[in-house]
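Subject: for your reference before the review

Hello V.,

The reviewers asked for a structural picture of the protein, and I figured it would be easier to keep everything in one thread rather than splitting it across files. Below is the amino acid sequence we used in the manuscript, unchanged from the supplementary table.
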Amino acid sequence: MPKRIVDLRSQNRPLLDIASYARRGPNDRPALSSAEIAHASRTVRGVPEVLIKVSGGARTVRGVASHMEYLETRADLETDEGTVQTEKGLARELLKEWDLEIAERGHHTRPAIASGRRTPKLVHNLVFSMPKGTPPDKLHAAVKAFATETFGLRHRYAMALHTDQGHPHVHLIVKARSEHGERLNIYKATLREWRRHFASCLRQLGVEANATERAVRGSRHQNRKVGIYRAARRGYSSFISKRAESIARELRNGAVQPGLGKSRLLQTRREVENGWLAFAEAAARAGMKEVADAAVRFVRSLPPPRTDRESTAERMQQPMEKHHSR
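And here is what came back from the structure prediction:
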């Protein structure tokens, strides 16, 4: 059977595409849909945002086994076929069922090695999480519904609910190659679509959940590369340590360089603010004064845009200011 690539990049625009409102002319703005209004209302109310993180993915059977066995020691594993294993042993059974050894051998053929290409992943490791206070059973049910609708009868998967880190989260291991030989590739647009779907699954279970782009929310949080993130979780990251030392020197000299991306950050913020105001104008024309007023208040409450360096400098200055104020 010929190899096929599954490209899950959505061709649709984000549901709440605030930036596009700023770029449209007065006569180009269509009537607001009920979905857009509901999404905007959740955003301005600060409804909890869902998180889906690609936490890696093993390229060897040994790596898959290690991750599965780690999850198995902390919680029950559940498969796409509904099998729940409360004792150790399911992980090794899945390795055989998923034919991962055959897939791994296929990656190490002479032509593949000669090409010099990086060995593709055997599985994708995903983490679905919500803030503290979210009912774990409903989170688990929402991820199960999402996985069934997204991967059912195509990509094999296994999942485990964890509640030991303050907030409930579900680990989902998805076989990269489907039962029909199609490979799953994950792009930013894929994650955007998955977040919307996951949030919808939670709302259907009565859990308030939203999926809005960080820039639209005015969030300052920035993603770190996986290696830096993991090093920080272990307690030390040479990258973060060197950056902190550089910022400290600049603070002593009286000025911190904002770093790369500041101009782009400011441009994005302008588009977001103009988009929200255009959305508010459209809502007001449609007679939804409360929605319009809430959107305007939300724009006014957005924190100033900061690069990662500026945010770090701000945090470092706080204890210094407290010390000098004594």
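For the response letter, the relevant points are probably these. The first strand starts at residue 4 and ends at 7. Residues 262-285 form the longest helix (24 residues).

Happy to draft the paragraph if you're swamped.

O.
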